[in-house]
Amino acid sequence: xxxxxxxxxxxxxxxxxxxxxxxxxxxxxxxxxxxxxxxxxxxxxxxxxxxxxxxxxxxxxxxxxxxxxxxxxxxxxxxxxxxxxxxxxxxxxxxxxxxxxxxxxxxxxxxxxxxxxxxxxxxxxxxxxxxxxxxxxxxxxxxxxxxxxxxxxxxxxxxxxxxxxxxxxxxxxxxxxxxxxxxxxxxxxxxx
Length: 192
Fold this sequence. Notes:
Distance between the termini: 85 Å
Structural class: mainly alpha
Helix content: over 70%
Order of helices and strands: HHHHHHH
Radius of gyration: 24 Å
Number of strands: 0
Number of domains: 2
């Protein structure tokens, strides 16, 4: 019975996440949502286009803090209690989720990484983050080391785009050197 109850709660939580992603996708597709996104990308240009950047920033803060409060209330309902320290470390987890999700999305989708994929991969990044932390705890490492491992996880995912660009550049250089060598040897053979 307890397993069914837990599965039902997780299904409801997943449905709630899907609804929130759909509402955010709809909102950021509206004219005001586009103004908020433009303000986030380039505030000076948005101001030059006539967007009230101060109001857009305030609405963004209200929206984000409302979502944080809602998620805290849902977490308290899920756990059955509330504690002052429940949100400790949430900023690190949120940043890790965004970084992991964006890196994975850019690696998988490349140029077709659109807004709905960014929203979805942020949630996927949070899931991956918690799976890795759970594996670390299952291995039997101390829970005191979770901050170290969370920092390592984020560092690995931050390094992926850099390493990818470096490997692409080195493959390009190797290809050019090979082409130059082949061209040089073929002209030498023709000359002989």
